[in-house]
Amino acid sequence: PISAYRSTQKSDPALADKVYLWKTPAGPVTRLTGASPNSYGIWKFAENKEGAKAFLRHYAANWVEGFKASTGYNHPCFTRMVDRPMPILSNDPSSHPSDKLSVLQTGVEWHATFGYPGPGTTAADEVVNNYIIPDMMANAATDKMSPKEAVEWAEKEIKAIYRKWAL
User: Fold this and answer.
1) pTM of the predicted model as reported, rounded to 2 decimal places
2) Looking at residue 46, what is its pLDDT?
3) Which of 100, 104, 117, 156 lies 20 to 30 angstroms, CA to CA, from 12?
């Protein structure tokens, strides 16, 4: 992820020059990785709904400046929303070479929201936010559990979450 790269740029610039980002490896069916999209909204109980709407309209109309300020973290995921080449990702003055982040412009082709192949749901989000899959892998990798036990543990945890949400 871009955060690991940006952190390396700050802590060890020489190493960052040797770090490149690339697509997730392709599996037997397709190439996919989980995406953690963010969105903006206005609560029904917001005290300044008109001000919030004005802010969102301004942000949408001027997204490029916000994107540049985020150094590439907050790039839009909708292909028709953003012309290519994208600023920062296609030409980042702090990266060597300056186009090393350009692969991120194709992210929409190889990212899926959590819950894939179904829709993103509250239950899928809870599974992600509770680190069930990473913990399963860590439990097996550190011999806290056998691989079979780790999978069984994760399945039990996931099923409980989906039951809670009646999914």
Assistant:
1) 0.72
2) 97
3) 104
